[in-house]
Amino acid sequence: MAVNDLLQEYERLRDKLRKANEGVFLARDSDLNYSIEKAIKQSSTKHHYIPQYYIDGFLAPDGLLDIYDKQRDTIKRERKGSGGVFFEPNRNSTDFGFEKPISLFEEAYGTVDNLLPAAIKLLRSDSVTVSSEIFLELMANVSVFVIDLFWRNINTDQLFDNMYQNGKMVITLSNGDVLSAEETNTIKQIPGFKQLTRFQLFKPALQEALNQDPNGTTFGRLIHFPVEQICIGDMPFVFPFIPKNHTGLVQLPVIVPISKSKIYLRNIERTKPYDFSDTCMLNALIIEQSSKMICSANRTVLEGAIEYYRFAKENDCFEMYRHRLFFDENI
Prior knowledge:
By secondary structure, the chain is an alpha+beta fold. The protein has one domain (3-326). Helix content is 44%, strand content 10%. The chain has helices at 3-13, 16-21, 36-42, 52-55, 104-113, 117-124, 132-151, 157-166, 181-187, 193-201, 203-209, 246-251, 276-289, 299-315, 318-326; strands at residues 46-48, 66-69, 74-75, 87-89, 220-224, 232-233, 254-259, 262-266, 293-296. The strands form three sheets. Strands 3-2-9-6 form a four-stranded antiparallel sheet, with helices on one face. It has a three-stranded antiparallel sheet with strand order 5-8-7. It has a two-stranded antiparallel sheet with strand order 1-4. A hairpin with a 2-residue loop joins strand 7 and strand 8 (262-266). Helix 1 packs antiparallel against helix 6 (117-124). The radius of gyration is 21 Å and the shape is globular. The chain starts with a helix and ends in a 5-residue tail after the last helix.
């Protein structure tokens, strides 16, 4: 894609984030034309918890990936493209008692996915020079991306389940009435309500991200490596520690792989240059925090990442890896 095309695509989509924040989601059908039959017919079953537009940045020239199955501790013989990894059947579908589940929330996540690819493509480009104003917006886009992937991710399923089952939930009706605890528990059993609650979780963080750092406290930069040396896992970005709230997702230091040869750094103190050994540690941390699979465009890079991961696991080095990536001083 040409440089001007990238910028124009980004310009066309940049305001949609704010529209999404205001709840302006355009459905495929108007309410008048919508029917259960259409919803069933249009429902999908293959739901990616890592969106394909993001996976595409890590593909080999032939459009495929080498895949490490973490649970079986082996590299799979069959390589796959972005459509064949990081998905679960009917993950975002809801069973309303019809002939098959309806992918209502996959459509909702798809709306978010349609907002972000232009920004990610712009960050991946090596030939585009952007203004400081646009880069500020791109940093906000990356924060939205992190929020989205964190809360839709298989690795936060247990965290959300604990919050949903044990956390205090207050439901206020349109007339101002507040439901009792018993009434709330009844509502929580309605098909789809749990998925709706999870989808709504990132909205407060989305609002914070879209403020675009009014106090100027966020520092972002891109690091480009000359060769493809970065893996993608089912938990693809690395924090110095697990975020405890929405503000952490927006403000904590984080390393976000943008492509197989580029990373985005937010609020990171380290000033020393990053080299191949650093990306090996980054890849090992991505393996450590992922639960199912890690992929790479280059099998040799993937094998090296696995070796770094195994060494760290045997010698308790993950904290050292993490500290070295985020800070200048050694521990």
